[in-house]
What does this fold into?
Amino acid sequence: MPNKGQKLYDKDKVIAGLVIFVILATFPFWFNLGKAASAPELELTEKAKAAEKCVRDTQYMRDEHMQLLDEWRDTVVRDAKRIYVNERNVGYDMSLSNTCLDCHSNKAEFCDRCHDYTSVNPYCWDCHIDNPKEAK
Amino acid sequence: MMEKSRRRFLKIAGISALGLGAKPVLDVFASSEEDVVVEAPVQEGAPHVTETEAHHAATEPRIMRSPNAKVAPQWAMVIDTRKIQSHSDVEPMIEACHKIHNVPHMPDKKHEIKWIWETEFKHAFPNLASEYMAKRVEHLGLPVLCNHCENPPCVRVCPTKATFKNSQGIVMMDYHRCIGCRFCMAACPYGARSFNFFDPKPHIEEENKKFPTRMRGVVEKCNFCAERLAVGQKPACVEASNGIMAFGNLHDPNSEVREIIHSNYTIRRKQNLGTRPAVYYII
It folds into this structure.
């Protein structure tokens, strides 16, 4: 029966082929080894530093600012309610341009760094004017 | 023996199937009860709070209207065209509106974007214009804008609810949702809507940083200055009109607009169409 003590024909070619295949298939992994981009460092503007506290605490803003902004835009546009009172009982005008980007006027060093790092491309700035001070 | 066990098997299988079928039904009941618990405070006008937030926060974040906000179930406008002498009386209203709302000035008339503009009587009121008319009215430039109809046809045809009638009676545009199909433009009998065939940004002479711009591919129009009403100001055109325009709550019999409508003969644009426009004209 052919199964017993079966011979691998063209052993050299097969193994060489397998080695080349494994190298090629894993190429992206070892080529990029150790080159992982470090988490971006954000820069705060003087105004943001002076304010000390954002609309919500830093961790919440970091994790969920997109949900917050989404809720803001819906309530402002559709429910005509424009004031957000946070848990510290401080009210804010729910406006990306006039509230968020007023303090965080350094889009390139604040917004873009994380968005580039995580490869997200929000289209907020298509209409909502980014930094008024930074001529583009 | 064989018969019996087969019968038993079928019985058990039947009961199991029934149990499996009943589970989703029970789940639906269980979840709908939960929903009521969560949604109840929202309906009372209380804050929108998710469960996680509620646990962390001392006072729950809430969303409200500015205490200065002007509120009405249906805003309306009366335009006293008797006070218009010439083009220079209408120009400031258009200028004020287009400036604060970042309305672009497109070079080609075909791509024009307008929120409020000037037109002759025969175009504003085609069903009322006669061959022979009062000289003063015949070629007078009348300010026309979105009528914020009580029965808006544009809202009916919008497939994405990007345009809608808000709680103040304003026909609003949610530019985030507009897909640029232009059904609303076809439906509006007043030509009050403009389409951004191109990116409007390069054609905005002086950007107002306080108000967003629009992008290519959305329809835009007058918003009755919803953003100004929200902070207690009157619409920009009304402020710039030098008394030609009056603005107020249509449903309040003592409001300024209702007083004017009561004591003057007013007309509305194409009201035979049943759109119930909220902009009244004294000719």
Notes: The interface with chain A takes residues 47-48, 53, 56-66, 69, 164, 166-168, 172, 174-176, 207, 209-215, 226, 230-231 of chain B (CB under 8 Å). The mean pLDDT of chain B is 88. The longest strand of chain B covers residues 75-80.
